[in-house]
Amino acid sequence: MRFHVLSTLLAAGLVVAACGSDENSTGGTPGDSTTTAGNGSNGGGSSGGGAPLPSSEPSGPRQGIATYYAATGDGNCSFGPSPNAMDVTALNFPEYAGSAACGTCIKVTGPKGEVTVRVVDSCPECEEHHLDLSKEAFGKIAELKAGRIDITYQAVSCNVTGNVQYVFKDGSSKWWTAIQVRNHKLPIAKLEYQKGDGWTAMKRADYNYFLEEGGVGDQPSGLHVRVTSVDGQTLEDTLPGTITPEAVTTGGAQFE
Fold first, then answer.
1. What is the largest CA-CA distance in the chain?
2. Where are the annotated coiled coils located (predicted)?
3. CA pair distance 36, 81, nearest whole angstrom
4. CA-to-CA dists, residue 188 to 30, 82, 120, 195, 220, angstroms
């Protein structure tokens, strides 16, 4: 796994477009949830809201190139294979931004039309503005024989079904805890858990889990978490107090 940090999350214009939810994020135990609108302090949105693509550039559509690879839907984002949802992409390291782009949906326009893909992997050898699409997605916007094409691309809101979900990584316990957020409409900026009277931010790993290296400890009343999207919206949920590795919990709400 590799890690690259960018200092800013800048907003691309919001376009509501179809992007399938994570193949492995169905089901799970419902959690208690509340939703609040933030002020965009974690990256901000455009004047009409936004689904920012982590980048060092100003907001708006970007020009780039696309190639393709034999994708499975798995990759550095740790979502697992998604054989029934193969419109996916690996993203260049600068825009992958240490996994901040994982789960982001991107509308890509090529010579033959448009396709909306979900970020599931990083592409360390790709230069900035280079998207390495699945073969299936590439074939919807260009002839496969072209191999490498010019594109326009922009982050969009994912058309997911249901509420956000949380999964504990294998090996998680009250002594070492790793949580992934899945099935989110907008990219995730931050995950916190309640500790005493305040909130403690969990460190984001480049494989798309949020970590508490010393563990969250005993949580007899449930593990209270707060997840923040890149445009500042927050969701609060209560996960089971007993941590079960690979268990999936469905939250009580979805980002707007």
1. 59
2. none
3. 32
4. 20, 20, 14, 21, 27
Do 132 and 176 have their domain in common?
no
C-alpha angle 189/116/55, rounded to 5°? 40
What backbone phi and psi angles, to 5 degrees, belong to 145? -65, -20
**Domain with 114 in it:** 47-156
**What band does 24 get if pLDDT is binned at 50, 70 and 90?**
very low
| Global model pTM greater than 0.85 | no
How many domains, the chain?
2
Tell me the C-alpha distance between 240 and 256, whole Å: 25
Q: Give the whole-angstrom CA distance, residue 111 versus residue 37.
A: 38
Together in a domain, 127 and 177: no
Per-residue pLDDT reduced to its tens digit, 116-125: 999 999 999 9
Over residues 75-126, the pLDDT tens digits come to 999 999 999 999 999 999 999 999 999 999 999 999 999 999 999 999 999 9
